[in-house]
């Protein structure tokens, strides 16, 4: 595999038993993923930046959770409106300090 | 958040619309996650190593997929029996070369 520059994981609260439920999902996880994909396409970041939804990360009280690797930046209480700012920060090799948990 | 030493993502083929289906799930993704959790507990790696299931990573032909961050090691065609060897390698700061994609 070509190495990604950034891999964004968005908690979608999926359970392995086949249900999607839980705090992050209620709180716009689907829109967060869609917005990341839109930003990645608009900025031609395909192949450099990938977004993947995840199962529950276990810190629901701070959800919706977004983790960016390899830098391991943990963001909490993310909204779909925060996505553009997060991608701006990625492109500048910076972080959105107000969302860090 | 305390930084994890390793974060293991296992493709569980979850779709954000609330279904779990697809190649990785058919191919033992659930057992792979359970085995990782068992190894993490047996070796007292809680807080250092975390395992999270993910939605489809889009490379189903090489599934089941496991990605380990921050080193971004992509493993393919992983079986539940490979988990112990992957965790051995993590503890030794090495990789399981035969599974790398």
Summed up, the helix count of chain A is 3
Terminal CA distance of chain A reads 30 Å
- CATH topology value of chain A: Glutaredoxin
Order of helices and strands of chain A: EHHEEEH
The helix content of chain A is 25-40%
Strand order of the largest sheet of chain A: 2-1-3-4
Q: Any idea what the radius of gyration of chain A is?
A: 13 Å
CATH class of chain A: Alpha Beta
Strand tally of chain A is 4
* Second rung of CATH, namely the architecture of chain A: 3-Layer(aba) Sandwich
Q: What amount of the residues of chain A lies in strands?
A: 15-25%
Oligomer: homodimer
Largest β sheet strand count, sense and barrel closure of chain A? 4 strands, mixed
Poorly predicted runs of chain A: none
Under CATH, the homologous superfamily of chain A reads Glutaredoxin
Biggest interface, chains and residues, is: A-B, 28 and 29 residues
The total tally of domains of chain A equals: 1
Give an account of the 3D structure:
The structure is a homodimer of 101-residue chains. Chain A is of the alpha+beta class and 101 residues long. Helices cover 27% and strands 23% of the residues of chain A. Chain A is globular. Chain A contains three helices and four strands; from the N terminus they run βααβββα. In chain A, a hairpin with a 3-residue loop joins β3 (66-69) and β4 (73-75).
Question: How do the strands and helices of this protein lay out in sequence?
Answer:
The structure is a homodimer of 101-residue chains.
Chain A: E1 6-14, H1 23-26, H2 29-42, E2 49-55, E3 66-69, E4 73-75, H3 83-91
Parallel strand pairs in A: 1-2
Antiparallel strand pairs in A: 1-3, 3-4
């Amino acid at each position: 595999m070509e190495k990604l520059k950034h891999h964004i994981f968005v908690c979608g609260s999926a359970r392995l038993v086949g249900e999607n439920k839980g705090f992050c999902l209620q709180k716009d996880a689907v829109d967060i993923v869609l917005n990341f994909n839109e930003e990645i396409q608009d900025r031609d970041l395909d192949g450099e930046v990938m977004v993947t939804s995840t199962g529950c990360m276990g810190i629901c009280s701070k959800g919706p959770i977004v983790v960016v690797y390899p830098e391991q930046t943990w963001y909490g209480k993310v909204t779909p409106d925060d996505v553009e700012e997060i991608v701006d920060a990625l492109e500048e090799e910076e972080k959105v300090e107000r969302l860090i948990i």
